[in-house]
Amino acid sequence: MTNESNLKPSTARIAFASFIGTAIEFYDFYIYGLAVAMVIGPLFFPGSAPSAQALNAFLTFGIAFLARPIGALLFGHFGDKIGRKATLVASLLVMGISTTLIGVLPSFELIGWVAPALLCLLRFGQGIGLGGEWGGAALLAAEYAPQGKRGWFGMFPQLGPPIGFFCAVSSFLLLSYFLEEGQFRAWGWRIPFLASAALVIVGLYVRLKLTETPIFTQAIKSQQPVKLPLALLLSRYPVPLLQGALAMVVCYALFYISTVFSLSYGVSTLKIPRPQFLGMLCISVIFMAAATPLSAWSGDRFGRRPVLLVAGIAAFLSGFLLAPMLSSGSAWQITTFLSIELFLMGATFAPMGALLPELFPTSVRYTGAGTAYNIGGILGASLAPYLAQQLVLFGGLSWVGGYVSAAAAISLLAVFSMRETRDRKLV
User: Fold this and answer.
1) C-beta atoms surrounding 52 within 10 Å
2) In this prediction, what percent of the chain has a pLDDT beyond 90?
3) Is residue 281 within 8 Å of residue 338, measured between CB atoms?
4) Which of 14, 48, 56, 62 is 20 to 30 A removed from 84 (C-alpha atoms)?
5) Residue 36 burial (10 A CB sphere; 0-12, 13-18, 19+)
6) Could you count the other beta carbons within 10 Å of the beta carbon of residue 80?
7) What is the pLDDT of residues 245-289, one digit of tens each?
8) What is the DSSP letter of 367?
């Protein structure tokens, strides 16, 4: 017993291990989203009109969201059978390799149609890696957390996205200041992708030092792992799976409309200089990071459900702000709007680190939490920038605001249909 307790990682190491992987993986994921808004269209779809280039680039952005549930099922299957640690290491490797290869991928001018084909394949690999990452990181935090503090521990993987996004935006912002436009388009945009390799090495070092979670270890000792976690999940827990997936929709819609779409619209339509808009996003993402611990603490104090309902109502109302504030052309109005949206994203996102693992038993928890999280990504984000672009062409920015409000309404109904999970035991 003493030997086991000596081997148990410290609270700080658990928190850092659950945070660092999601930060790296979301950094990888976001640099692609930012590159889509700036250079992917002209480099990989040069024969099209500018509007068609943007639409094609946004479609490649959406491919990863289709891959994420596959990654969740693949890594979830092995995570529920052999453990959380090995699958977390594998997911980080898949994401890191895919991202680094995008950084050395030749453009359409050099290898023709093979370039966009390989781009789609590597973007699919990014989705596979991220699909397996979040569920494992959330379980790592939740299954080590003491009773009553799962929301707080579940916050650490949720801090990964704002930190990863801040690093992604900062990297492109620095490049915008130090490189001319021609240099940036020729080779500068590749630097953030290549830097991912160094970050992955750091993440792997931290992950390899971990031991298996005590809850999974206890479950393996008391019963055999389920042969097919997905079959058990679909036969016994379809309602929690659907509720969890729909509860995630608003998080994704808020984030990708206020980042990828807004960046593209601000630079191409409003003619705001790219460095200025990236600086506005850097300021705004601080509000997302600030909302994350506040919402996680509130989830432990008042329950996941009330926090998500309040944040969801605010997100619904925020959709009405999109058209007047984003179209204003005013830097402070746009920054204020982006800050509101990303604050609400943090508020709706933070409780999910505890809520989704609490919806499922240990035998299917990795598969269930990861699949719900990533199906929510398909519904809320895979086509969000693409649909927003189409909605602008069809009816203007007010339709994009309606998209945000509709996503919030879907998540509100899902959360309203749930029972509170705060006091559930994970064993």
Assistant:
1) 12
2) 27
3) yes
4) 62
5) buried
6) 30
7) 999 999 989 988 888 888 888 888 889 988 898 889 889 989 998
8) H
Q: What is the CA 222 to chain-centroid distance, rounded?
A: 34
> Residue 214 and residue 399: Cα distance in Å, rounded?
48
Q: Which amino acid is at 255?
A: F
User: What is the pLDDT, as a whole number, of residue 7?
Assistant: 44
Burial tier of 402 (Cβ tally within 10 Å: 0-12, 13-18, 19+): middle
Compute the distance between CA of residue 262 and CA of residue 255 in angstroms, rounded to an integer.
10
**CA atoms of 332 and 338, how far apart (whole Å):** 10
* pLDDT number for residue 82: 76
Residue 385's H or E segment, with its range, is: helix 384-395
pLDDT of the residue at 202: 84
- 258 contacts 284 by C-beta, under 8 angstroms: yes
**Residue whose C-alpha is closest to residue 252's, from 57, 411, 391, 112:** 411
Residues in Cβ contact with 324 at an 8 Å cutoff, skipping those fewer than 6 apart: none
Q: For the chain, which ranges sit under pLDDT 70?
A: 1-10, 47-55, 219-220, 222-225, 382, 427
pLDDT at site 6:
43
**Which CATH architecture group holds 10-416?**
Up-down Bundle (1.20)
Predicted local distance difference test score (pLDDT) of residue 50: 66
Q: Which helix (H) or strand (E) holds 90?
A: helix 84-102
DSSP state of 8: S
pLDDT, residue 234, reads 92
Half-sphere exposure of 35 (CA within 13 A, CB side): 28
Closest CA to 62 of 312, 389, 337, 296: 389
| Distance between CA atoms of residues 217 and 211, nearest Å | 10
Which tokens belong to 353?
């680190």
**Interacting residues of 401 by C-beta distance below 8 A, sequence separation 6+:** 319, 320, 321, 322, 323
Full DSSP string of 35-58: HIIIIIHHHH-TTS-HHHHHHHHH
- Residue 146: phi, psi to the nearest 5? -70, 155
pLDDT (0 to 100) of residue 5:
42
Instruction: Check residue 318 and give its pLDDT.
Output: 95
